[in-house]
Amino acid sequence: MAQMADKFLLSRFARLSCLLLVGLAVYGAAISSWLAAAAAFLAAALVWTTPAMDPGHERTVWVGINRTIALALTVFLLASLWLGPASLTHWLYAVPLISFALFPLAWAVLLVMLAMVAVMVATLMPEAGPARHQLVSSLMLTTAIAGLLVFLREYKTRQLAPLRRTDELTQAASRDYLSADLHKEIQRSEREGTDMAIIMIGLDTHLNDSDLDADIRAILPRIGRFLHSQLRDFDSYYRVADLQFLIILPGNTTAESAAKAEQIRKGLRSLLISHELDLTISAGIAGLNIGDDADSLQHSAANALKRAQQQGGNRVQSYSPWSGTAIKSMGGV
Question: What's the predicted TM-score (pTM) here?
């Protein structure tokens, strides 16, 4: 809930900032301050192309556009040192924050260093005025603050990494907790004498590729939400690989789980088609048998999924404990 609230507030703040910057650009154009108007417009575009405005902006193409706009804005702000207006030079204080927020650390340091050199060169000119020393010292102070924020961000990320249970992209549970959770469900099933099965779902694409297409990465959050909507309150699902999810179904037989997997497969197929992605989905099912543990159960489901994909994909397979192979359960268009 806290994460959802943060995203909600960040989105509203981004929209308000974008609106105010557009208004500032219009005002700058009205008073014929064209450089200020262009800088305000670029700043609005910079905010608009961030994921805070639209989660779809996490795609690679949008990241490239966002960074290009940031570079253009930096150039415009540096140009104001020679072309004016003088008030626009104070926007340079935001350059370190923008650089460290949008660029990899090495590129951000290089960009900030170039901006510092440009400011120092500009302030050596006689027309810079008596305030030139204040500009340099203020820019160095904001750079130091930006560096401190980067340090705190990295420190927080490392401290919270062991506590992060959900995958940020899909909201599925983290793979780090899968074995422990599955072990608990197996113990509960054996203690209560109930059935249990797992489903391993995978997209039939890029099976040997570690680098996802931008369109596939953009659709992963919707896949996560769809899986969440299809499960009961006591079911759980995990992201076990870039394009694979595992679902634990307490109390379900293998046949019931196969029917659920086919329902999910068709739903995901429709979801992908609605986003103009001609991709198929396969699933492997493994029911709990005597002697199974967390590792063997996952291995059985993975084998079933592998067999489904080897046979062309777009189908559901159930694992047979007697033959040690996957047997076809059902398939579809």
Answer: 0.52
